[in-house]
Every structure is written in structure tokens, then in C-alpha cells.
Amino acid sequence: MKLTIHNLSKGYNGHEILKNINLEITASSIGIIGESGCGKSTLLRQLAGIETPDQGEIWMNGISPIQDRKAFQENIGYVFQKHNLFPHLTIRENILLILEKIKKIHPGEAAIIADQVLEKLHIKEIEHKRPNRISGGQAQRASIARALATNPQLVFLDEPTAALDPILT
Question: Can you spell out the DSSP letters for 118-149?
Fold first, then answer.
């Protein structure tokens, strides 16, 4: 996996958040550390193709989100600061929806994958509950499970352990 960022800039309401960022990332994992409000989440949203930069280019393995957002995002998982689960669906349904509708995986195979990630993140016992019926930590683990279920090449984690206790972290 190769992620290239060239002259990336982004602002909101006339306030510049990111200015001329240039990076080439080939590492298997990288951490972005900084003070609250310094632009870490903004940078991740640009890199994941969730938002469009004001200027600059982003490339992952030769694909740009500006040229082909769907192809770019096909191998990306994203875990938001706040779980961002669909509130009307159970935890299991949240995972199955992504697998079946977005990834076009057969329902039987999707069920097997869902079982595996639910077990791996120790949330199988809450699979039939909705997000408003579980703790923040459980919801965050469900969000991580949903991102990992798609077997992405790259996962962006925006403070994924903020709602988790130290042992689960």
C-alpha cells in the first residue's frame, strides 16, 4: 500500500486547517499525534475520501478519490471518533449491511464474516441490540468490527479507543 499526499490544503469558513501537506506513506501503520483541534480528524477525512480537499492531491496505489471515489474507498475502512453506527439497526445488521449492500457479499458468507468479527472484538453477546442499548465502548468496538469486516487494505482510526477501558484498548 502506498499513500501519497501532495500540497493538501483544507479550510472551513475561511479558517485554514491543513496547509500544503506533503507525505508519502508506505508503512503498515502510522500514528498522527497532536493537540485537540489541530486538524487530525480533518486530515483523516481527506485521506479517506470522505471530504474533498480545497487543493492538492491524494493517491492510494495510483487511485485518486477525486478521479474515482468509489474505487478509492473500496479498500478503506474508517472508524470515527463517535461510533457512527446506524441507530435503527442492530449491531449485527450494521455489519451485514456494509458487507451485503456495499461489498456485495452473499448473505451466507456475510453472516460468517460478521460472526468472526463479533467474536474477535468480544461483542457477540450484544449483536442483536441497537446502538442506543449498549455502552459507548461496546458501540466503538462494533464500529471497529464493521470496519474490519470488509477486510480493507487500509483502516483509518480516528481516536478509536477514546470510549474504551484500558484493558480493551
Answer: HHHTT-GGGTTS-GGGS-HHHHHHHHHHHHHH
Query: pLDDT tens for residues 112-129?
Result: 999 999 999 999 999 999
Strand ordering across the sheet containing 55-60: 15-25, 3-12, 55-60
**Span between the terminal Cα atoms of the chain, in Å:** 26
Torsion of CA 117, 120, 125, 126, to 10 degrees: -50
Tell me how far apart the alpha carbons of residues 87 and 95 are, in angstroms, rounded to a whole number: 13
Q: How many Å is the Cα radius of gyration of the chain?
A: 17
Q: Report yes or no: 17 and 42 within 8 Å, Cβ to Cβ.
A: yes
Which amino acid makes up residue 118? L
Q: What is the rounded distance in angstroms from the CA atom of residue 167 to the CA atom of residue 112?
A: 27
| Residue whose C-alpha cell reads 453506527 in the numeric block | 85
Which pTM value belongs to this model? 0.82
- The span from the CA of 161 to the CA of 169, in Å, is 6
Q: Is 58 helix (H, G, I), strand (E, B) or coil?
A: strand
